[in-house]
């Protein structure tokens, strides 16, 4: 669930960042995709860390 939350939050933050900087539609989509991937990876590492610490 942390990975999916990171994916959605990253996409929203990326899209808003590109829009604030005056990007066009493809710029907004690219920023949203990159931020979504980065936040999903962070969420994956957080999930693995939490799982390892819980054992």
UniProtKB/TrEMBL annotation:
MF annotations from Gene Ontology? transmembrane transporter activity
Domain (Major facilitator superfamily (MFS) profile) spans 1-55
The answer to keyword Membrane applying to this record is: yes
Keywords associated with the record? Membrane, Transmembrane, Transmembrane helix
> What transmembrane ranges does the database entry give?
28-50
Q: Which domain of life is it from?
A: Bacteria
Instruction: List the protein's name.
Output: Major facilitator superfamily (MFS) profile domain-containing protein
Q: Which species is the source of this protein?
A: Fuscibacter oryzae
């Amino acid at each position: 669930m942390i990975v999916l939350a990171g994916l959605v939050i990253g996409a929203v933050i990326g899209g808003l960042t590109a829009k604030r900087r005056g990007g066009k539609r493809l710029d907004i989509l690219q920023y949203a995709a990159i931020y979504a991937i980065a936040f999903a990876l962070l969420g994956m590492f957080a999930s693995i860390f939490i799982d390892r610490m819980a054992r």
